[in-house]
Structures are given as structure tokens and as C-alpha cells.
Specification:
Elements: E1 2-8, E2 14-20, H1 22-32, H2 36-53, E3 62-69, E4 75-81, E5 86-90, H3 107-111, E6 115-122, E7 129-134, H4 141-151, E8 156-164, E9 170-180, H5 186-198, H6 202-207, H7 212-219, E10 226-233, H8 241-249, H9 253-261, E11 265-268, E12 275-278, H10 280-288
Antiparallel strand pairs: 1-2, 1-10, 2-9, 3-4, 3-6, 4-5, 6-7, 8-9, 11-12
Helix pairs in contact: 1-2, 9-10
Bound molecules: zinc ion (ZN).
The site of zinc ion (ZN) has 6 residues, from loops.
Length: 289
């Protein structure tokens, strides 16, 4: 199980959510059979979605984060519920490119630097909230920070990391998101900057034995932080036969009749690869409903 721990400064002006996403990113690798650099990129985005989704108010609220860059991975899409459970999809799961000049997986090279990051929050209102910004980095964390600053006017710090073993399994994955509320004082901002500059990368912190809670507290060091909440999170797909039926119905009568003539159809869920089979009789029944 993954875990999200949220901490808050004593004056309640700074909040940090930290995630241990190893299990989530492992599921991504198992389901989508991603190459190492795509595991890292999609894993980072999934953890970001989870951190953004965690704490949405309504039980049925969700957030969809989409990165569409000009790199070989194509579009990456992650959806989180309000408990931080997340599902992920990538257009091209296998991208083989050299390591970057720091000897790390080149997420920017796989994602691309020209394109957009868009966020859709379904908060149970008539219209979902949508925000879109151009990519500024392609490494995901900086793009999330830029999105929050530009689109939501929330100053933040985001760090995301995934380490992949030579056999393509996930060694460790984690991240954190610090968000400053409008009444945060300059001294708190200075303290956060000092903390961040003094911190190793998230994967180094995890590898050195720090827990999610340790990281969430360390990020707010000097601000008398307290743990606000602590939840288990996982890779979770909420697809169902009913949802697939609705998608089929939206194709319209003509396409459904063609599918029935072809002897039925198999619909595969993009997020979990579960297959839903429909016989010609079942398809015709959808038309007449
Ligand atoms: Zn599914």
C-alpha cells in the first residue's frame, strides 16, 4: 500500500503532503509494461495527481491531470479520487532513450518540452474546473508548481522521484507538495526555501530510511508542524460494465449495429486493461434501451 501523510505548520499557513508511491508506480509498470523512463514519468505524474486529489472535499470529487508534450511518450493521463487513489495511462508505454547528462532517466526527453499540462477537477458542480498551462520543463514536478502558481495562484514546491531497478521493477517512488496559503508570512516562506535547499532528493531521503511522515515533517521544519492526516493510497481503477455500456451507447445506433454485425466486441479499459465482452445480442439490447 502507498501512503500519504499531510502536515501543517503551527500557524496553519503552510501545508505539506508527502507520498510513498512505490506500490502505485509498481502497478503502473505491471499494467502498462512501461520502459524505465516512462515508468518514471508516468509514476511522477500519478503521484502528483494523487497529491492534488488528496483532500478534495467531496467523496466523489476527482482530478484528472494530463500532460501532452511533443516527446515520444505521447500523452500521459492520471486520475485521482479525493482519497488520493489514482489510475494512469500513457499513449506510448515503451520509449527507449539514453540517460540524460546527469546519468538519470530522461523524463523530459520522453515527455517533451513543448506542450501543455491540463488539470480538470470534477467537484460535483455543473461544470468541472479546468486549468491549462504550457509545459515549462517536461520533468513534471516543475510543471505542477508552474500550474499551481499560474492557474490557481498558489505558491508551492513540488518534488517527485522514481528509481527503477535494472530489471524494470520499481526501487522506490515518492514525492511531496508544499502549498503556501495566502496569509503565509515572509518568514515562513524563507524557512521553506531554507528547508528545500538543505534537502536531498526525495528518492535519496526514502533510500536513507525516512518515512513519508518524516519527509512531510522535515519539509516544514522550523514551523512547528503537526501531522494533519495519514492515509493509505493505491492504484485503483473505477471502471465498470455500466460505464462501458454508457460509452458504447454514446457511439450511436449506426456504429452499434455495425459492431453487432461483426459478431460483438471487446472493450478494454485503458487504465487497468480489464476486458469487457459484448455479444451481438447485448449490443442490440443497448440500442433498444
Ligand atoms: Zn479499468
Amino acid at each position: 500500500m502507498g501512503r500519504i501523510v499531510r502536515t501543517i505548520s503551527k500557524d496553519a499557513s503552510v501545508v505539506c503532503s508527502a507520498i510513498d508511491g512505490k506500490d502505485i508506480v509498481s502497478r503502473i509498470e505491471q499494467i502498462h509494461k512501461t520502459s524505465a523512463v516512462v515508468t518514471a514519468g508516468l509514476g511522477r505524474l500519478a503521484m502528483a495527481a494523487s497529491l492534488l486529489g488528496f483532500g478534495l472535499k467531496g467523496d466523489n470529487d476527482s482530478v484528472t491531470v494530463r500532460v501532452a508534450g511533443d516527446g515520444p511518450a505521447g500523452a500521459l493521463i492520471c486520475v485521482s479520487d479525493s482519497m488520493g487513489n489514482v489510475k494512469a495511462y500513457v499513449q506510448n508505454p515503451v520509449v527507449e532513450i539514453p540517460l540524460n547528462d546527469k546519468g538519470k532517466l530522461d523524463v523530459r526527453g520522453a515527455v517533451g518540452t513543448n506542450g501543455t499540462l491540463s488539470v480538470v477537477k470534477d467537484l460535483g458542480l455543473k461544470e468541472p474546473y479546468c486549468g491549462q498551462v504550457p509545459l515549462v520543463s517536461g520533468e513534471i514536478a516543475e510543471d505542477i508548481t508552474n500550474y499551481l502558481a499560474v492557474s490557481e495562484q498558489v505558491p508551492s514546491v513540488c518534488a517527485l522521484g522514481v528509481l527503477v531497478n535494472p530489471d524494470l521493477t520499481v526501487k522506490c517512488a515518492g514525492g511531496f507538495l508544499i502549498q503556501l496559503l495566502p496569509f503565509a508570512q515572509d518568514s515562513a516562506i524563507d524557512q521553506i526555501e531554507k528547508n528545500i535547499n538543505g534537502m536531498e532528493s526525495v528518492t535519496q531521503l526514502i533510500s536513507s530510511g525516512m518515512t513519508t511522515e518524516d519527509i512531510a515533517l522535515k519539509a516544514l521544519e522550523g514551523l512547528d508542524p503537526n501531522v494533519l492526516d495519514d492515509f493509505e493510497v493505491s492504484y485503483r481503477c473505477d471502471c465498470s460494465r455500466k460505464r462501458v455500456e454508457n460509452a458504447l451507447i454514446s457511439l450511436g445506433r449506426k456504429d452499434l449495429e455495425d459492431l453487432a454485425k461483426d459478431g460483438g466486441t471487446d472493450v478494454e479499459c485503458h487504465f487497468c486493461e480489464k476486458r469487457y465482452h459484448f455479444t451481438p445480442e447485448e449490443i442490440l439490447r443497448l440500442i433498444h434501451n
